[in-house]
Amino acid sequence: MQLKGIHHVSALTGVAKDNYDFYTNTMGMRLVKKTVNQDDTSIYHLFFADAEGNPGTDLTFFEIPMAGTTYTGNNSISNTALRVPTDASIEFWKQRFEKLGVEFDEPLIQAGRLALPFRDPEGQRLTLVSDEHNEGVPGGKPWKHAEIPQEHGIIGLGPVKITVPQVDASTTVLTELMGFSEIDGYSSNGHPIRVFETGDGGSGAEVHVEARTDLSPERPGKGSVHHVAYRVEDMEELKAWHEKLKDARIPNSGIVERYYFTSLYFREPNGILYELATDGPGFDTDEPMDKLGESLALPPFLEPQRSQIEARLKPLDTNKSN
Known about the structure:
By secondary structure, the chain is of the alpha+beta class. It has a single domain (6-312), classed as 2,3-Dihydroxybiphenyl 1,2-Dioxygenase, domain 1 (Roll). It contains 5 helices and 16 strands. The strands form 2 sheets. The protein has an 8-stranded mixed sheet. Strands 6-7-8-5-9-12-11-10 form an 8-stranded mixed sheet. The chain is globular and about 50 Å long. The mean pLDDT is 96.
């Protein structure tokens, strides 16, 4: 019953094409699945990951064309980290961002690791974090990209930061329900941040909790994060988590079949949406590994609706970067 680390982070974008261009061409991540939001099949759901779509490497986006501007604030997943291999990688990315006009802050030490905060074109709050002094959950395999040497490529998700007003309520859920341990802390712009880890620990298994009582609740829009998912070994364990949530009288979604993994959703006391997701079966269950993300993939229960679904979607060419 121990969570293995971060499984994926899902965020919002206003334009799938521009989102695809940035995360494949600028960031060098691989589009491993082009599908639709299973709860609203009129919008794309894009999965960017390492070369093989390994659990713990997926940054995903729902396309919401009418999404407004995000007004950042409390009760939010306020930053997502992406792991790179070494401290030298941070300098490589700083120079690349300068060349390409990507908005970034100066490198800093964050929880003992060299980090580079930056924003995507829609204001998504991201941080590159070096794995040079990291131990714990291993990273993935960077995607081969013409402009990004593999020794500097993105290898997975790093710590997720949540910003909440009632910090004890959030940390109690992390430790007493979800099995995280508090291991560290640091300060950012004068605000305390507590560090929690699960599983084998390390950058790919951390949640950073920022306590803020001076902010209004975040108003989400394009560039905001919808939820963070944590890794569960298999269906047997996911069912045990479902029973644990029911025993704790925590409202939840029940078991949800996502085809590429199976999920369970619930909200913690500050409104943060958590998902527990199985490691398998994986993204190559319906596409060969060398063709991931090239075509619109639909789970079997949506396949009979393919013609109607495709008619509602804007064409999105995803062959060029794969």
